[in-house]
Amino acid sequence: MESNLHTDVVVLGGGSAGIAAAIAVVRKGLRVVLIERNAYPGGKATAAEVGTVCGLHKFNKKENAEYLVRGFAREFAELLQIKSNTSPLYNADGLHYLPYDIEAFKNVSIDLLNKNNVTNYFNSVLKTVQTVNDKIVSVSVIAAGNPINIQVKAIIDCSGGSSISRAAGLPLIESEVYQAAAQIFTMTGIDETNEGRLGMIVMKAVRLAIDREELAGFYDRVYIVPGSLKNNTVSFKVGIPLVVTYAPGNIPELKTVARSFVENLSQFLISHVEVFKNAVVKSIAPDVGTRIGQRSTGKYILTEEDVLQCKKFDDAIANASWPIEEWGQNRRVSMRFIDVDDFYQIPARCLQSKNIDNLFFAGRNISATDAAIASARVMGICLQTGYAAGCLAAAAATDISMADAVAQIQTDQI
Ligand SMILES: Cc1cc2nc3c(=O)[nH]c(=O)nc-3n(C[C@H](O)[C@H](O)[C@H](O)COP(=O)(O)OP(=O)(O)OC[C@H]3O[C@@H](n4cnc5c(N)ncnc54)[C@H](O)[C@@H]3O)c2cc1C
User: Fold this and answer.
1) DSSP characters for 7-18?
2) Residue 259: how many CB atoms within 10 A of its CB?
3) Which atom of ligand 1 is nearest to the CA of 97?
4) Which numbered atom of ligand 1 lies nearest the CA of 125?
5) Which atom of ligand 1 is nearest to the CA of 293?
6) What is the CATH class of 3-175+293-412?
7) Residue pair 179/326 in contact by the 8 Å Cβ criterion
8) Which helix (DSSP H) or strand (DSSP E) does residue 327 occupy?
């Protein structure tokens, strides 16, 4: 028997975007229900154990990271930095990123959600969406096994794959080729303390084994998660040699291929590389890291030109400087950079549904082309679009104009 609930705003998905969105709604004085499939918040940040937050800082060649983001994104990053006991790293391209501890990300998120009185439904999934006259009026959810119908004034899709747009039969922005997926796993018992040197040791051994045909060619798709080597423990990210299609069965198949990659690579390292001789696999991230899914169609579609030409918008709700980062089915990642010390903006229209008045999007399913989302998907930007979507949805639920809501976001957040 389905129970009924009324709230102001529903947020679907408790990743970095959904956490920010739900907190924004509460801070605007409204009730919110956050629905998350996993038993904990964080989305890819925790379930795929991504390990560094990108998109928080200015793009420049200065050694000390300078925040590009303000408002909630910065508040979250500062708490995460303290709880993870880390500081931002910097690479030769001018990119700054914050390594974090996975448990710290979960704890900071849970603390913030609880302190802000967000109603969380973990272990819960969206079933259907009911629409009347271009408005979503309710959603049906299975919350920890129990069917619930939730009546809403506004709704935010932070599902990473446009679950609400799909359930409502709305037009989607689909990729012709999705970016390659990755699996993150952690090994402990490693007898090396320098991360750069460890990377070179691993790569040299793997390349030699590939040349000798002891390992297949794709095993060179292995990277150390930056800043992860601590206490003889390190995390690796490996590129999965299987195309992401999202066809039925694709995710389980990616998972199976990823597990076999981790098993074979770790066994190889333990048996062939001196510094791994006492090592073991400590953990494998529960989620396969799929980078980009389907996006929802908004009032504006952010483009590659907007990103690369650092376009500014009157209705901007986020500042961003991360490059267009594209991972294909080969080892090298392609990075297309914006101008040093510049940034582009994301307009509020990328967060507003083209078809449904009270539907908003945030995170990696905002309205953007393949190339634009390859930049805008990083977490520093998801935190900003999440918070902004929360403010816009709260405005929609209380008949505040979008123009006033955007002006307030610009004052408080960017
Ligand atoms: C391998 C990999 C490496 C990356 N590296 C970095 C990096 O170094 N730095 C960086 O900043 N970013 C990185 N990213 C990108 C970044 O992690 C993600 O783009 C970002 O975390 C997305 O946040 P989100 O909130 O939009 O979506 P997600 O984190 O995907 O959250 C969506 C949430 O919605 C839930 N959900 C989905 N559908 C439903 C449903 N029907 N019902 C209930 N719940 C649902 C999911 O369980 C999930 O928790 C990486 C991504 C990958 C895959």
Assistant:
1) -SEEEE--BHHH
2) 15
3) 9
4) 42
5) 30
6) alpha beta
7) yes
8) strand 324-327
Looking up tokens 């997926």 gives 181
Q: Which of 28, 66, 102, 385 is closest to 8 using CA atoms?
A: 28
Distance of CA 292 from the midpoint of ligand 1 (Å): 9
- Write the residue with the smallest CA distance to atom 26 of ligand 1: 363
Q: Which residues line ligand 1 (CB under 6 A)?
A: 12-18, 35-38, 43-45, 48, 50, 52-55, 125-126, 158-160, 163, 182, 237, 289-291, 363-364, 377-379, 382
Q: Please report, for residues 47, 132, 137, 346, 399, the alpha-carbon distance to residue 156 in angstroms, rounded to integers and kept in the order given.
A: 21, 17, 13, 17, 16
Sign, CA dihedral 84-85-88-90, equals negative
- CB–CB of 138/358 below 8 Å? no
Of ligand 1's listed atoms, the one at least distance from the Cα of 364 is: 26
Please give the model's pTM, rounded to 2 decimal places: 0.97
pLDDT value of position 359: 98
Confidence (pLDDT) at 332: 75
User: By three-state DSSP, how is residue 372 classified?
Assistant: helix
Atom 51 in ligand 1: which residue has the minimum CA distance?
Answer: 291
* Placement of tokens 């460890």 in the chain: 198
The correct CATH number of 182-284 out of 3.90.25, 3.10.129, 3.40.1130, 3.30.70 is: 3.30.70
Tens-digit pLDDT profile for residues 337-375:
999 999 999 999 999 999 999 999 999 999 999 999 999
pLDDT at 341: 95
Report which protein residue has its CA nearest ligand 1's atom 29: 43
Q: Do domains 3-175+293-412 and 182-284 have the same CATH topology?
A: no
Q: Are 367 and 348 in contact (CB under 8 A)?
A: no
- CA distances to 49, 183, 268 from 36, rounded to whole Å, are 17, 21, 37
- Other C-beta atoms lying within 10 Å of the C-beta of residue 357: 12
Segments of the chain scoring below 70 in pLDDT: 331
Distance (Å) from CA 345 to ligand 1 centroid: 21
Q: First CA to last CA across the chain, in angstroms?
A: 45
How confident is the model at residue 275, as a pLDDT?
98
Mutation choice for ligand 1 from 11, 44, 68, 76, CB with most ligand atoms inside 8 A: 44
Phi and psi at residue 184, to the nearest 5° = -105, 135
Whose C-alpha lies nearest to ligand 1, atom 37?
159
For position 158, what pLDDT does the model report? 98
Please state the domain extents for the chain.
Answer: 3-175+293-412, 182-284
